[in-house]
Amino acid sequence: xxxxxxxxxxxxxxxxxxxxxxxxxxxxxxxxxxxxxxxxxxxxxxxxxxxxxxxxxxxxxxxxxxxxxxxxxxxxxxxxxxxxxxxxxxxxxxxxxxxxxxxxxxxxxxxxxxxxxxxxxxxxxxxxxxxxxxxxxxxxxxxxxxxxxxxxxxxxxxxxxxxxxxxxxxxxxxxxxxxxxxxxxxxxxxxxxxxxxxxxxxxxxxxxxxxxxxxxxxxxxxxxxxxxxxxxxxxxxxxxxxxxxxxxxxxxxxxxxxxxxxxxxxxxxxxxxxxxxxxxxxxxx
Length: 285
Hints:
The chain is 56% helix and 8% strand. The chain has 2 domains: 3-112, Arc Repressor Mutant, subunit A (Orthogonal Bundle); 115-271, 3-Layer(aba) Sandwich (Rossmann fold). By secondary structure, it is α/β, with parallel strands linked by helices. The longest helix has 22 residues, at 91-112. A 5-stranded parallel sheet has the order 2-1-3-4-5, sandwiched between helices. This is RpiR family carbohydrate utilization transcriptional regulator. It holds the Pfam family SIS.
């Protein structure tokens, strides 16, 4: 049952305070997806903790979790471009909706990412002989971003978006290598085949993907991609991309701290190498 249908079916059983919250949501479900907890509480005239209790009573872990389920319900009638906007939205509305959607995504990540898994992923990446980054299709640009950050840390790092190159890299990997694979859904056949080759080679597989996917089942470590935040079959999956880019930043930061003073010198040396490519900031007379 959809979260909206569930809310309507339980409406008569809600407490007075919960009914106020339900009224705000049912009056404008599209707006509710983009509301912060404090904003919803203010509109309903209830406390922030009451919003959390309301969501738990509906079987949701938190208000961000409720918004994820609500967004998925609304996506069935949404634009093919992205479910956060609608035809006819003004520039101001698009700006507001996109920023709110991304903020909600980061709230979701905060409550769903597992710190222990992040620590294990950082340790695995830091101890790897080489890091092979895989991202195809919409994840290709994300893989390049990861490569741009991680190659600076002194560990040999490559990124591929071609499935034939990835198959060869997977088949030729050793047990000292680490594959960092990005996939929005974790259900693409090519990604699963490459993951199987990685496992056969004995290399470690770290996947940023849907934790319930076939790819996640093959991975040694899985961090959520936030795929459930939006329908990633839309033309431009935006919110999921923000989640994954943030995870890359978290891993890169963790690795930098774990590697210590040596990597600080490495980063400074790389940064200084770019000085000669820039024009002087001083104004010429």
